Amino acid sequence: MKTKTIFLTLFLGALTFITSKSYGQDDTVITTAEGHRMDSVQSMPQGELLETEKVKDDETRLKEVKRERKLSKAKAKEANRIGREANEAARESNNAFKAEKKAQKARKMADKQALKAEKSRLKSDRNKD
Q1: What is the dihedral of CA 57, 63, 64, 67, to 10 degrees?
Q2: Rounded distance between C-alpha atoms, residue 105 and residue 108, angstroms
Q3: Can you give the pTM of this predicted structure?
Q4: Hey, what's the torsion of the CAs at 117, 122, 126, 129, to 10 degrees?
Q5: CB-based contacts of 41, cutoff 8 Å, min separation 6
Q6: Which of 23, 65, 74, 103 has its CA 20 to 30 A from that of 49?
Q7: Which residues in 61-82 are b (16+ Cβ under 10 Å) and which e?
Q8: pLDDT (average), residues 111-118
Q9: Cβ atoms of residues 56 and 64 within 8 Å
Q10: Dihedral of CA 19/22/25/28: which sign?
Q11: The pLDDT of residue 126 is above 70
Q12: Of 106, 77, 55, nearest to 85 (Cα)?
């Protein structure tokens, strides 16, 4: 009798777990639109499925190529802008160098003229005496 109650208790416990698990699962409710779509996909020949997948792959590849092309154009535009700025900076540097060279030459000439003027003043002072 004791074993009978133990088995009966275990059986009822196991039955409770089994039924609660099966009732606890969600029902997968399929709407009519999803049902029609699934039916159309199943009724579609395998070749058409492959073709539609191929078309989708081609479209994604085309989008990817367009995106890469747009990025490369932007990079090229940026590189051109940087190149123009570098050329402009080099030109300005060259002009500054030339201007400094001219200024040094002018200072040198002014020093020579000052020396000549000093010599001629000394000469005229000696002639007066």
Answers
A1: 180
A2: 5
A3: 0.43
A4: 100
A5: 49
A6: 65
A7: eeeeeeeeeeeeeeeeeeeeee
A8: 94
A9: no
A10: negative
A11: yes
A12: 77
Structure tokens at 68: 């890469």
C-alpha 97/C-alpha 61 separation (Å) is: 53
Q: Which residue has the tokens 């085309």?
A: 62
Reduce the secondary structure of 77-95 to three states and give it as a string: HHHHHHHHHHHHHHHHHHH
Q: Could you tell me the CA-to-CA distances from 86 to 13, 22, 74, 75, 90 in Å, in that order?
A: 84, 74, 18, 16, 6
Angle at 117 between CA 113 and CA 121, to 5 degrees: 170
Nearest partner of 14 among 22, 3, 26, 25, judged by Cα: 22
DSSP structure class, residue 26? P
What's the one-letter identity of residue 33? A
- Rg (Cα) of the chain, in Å, rounded? 48
**Mean pLDDT, the chain, integer:** 83
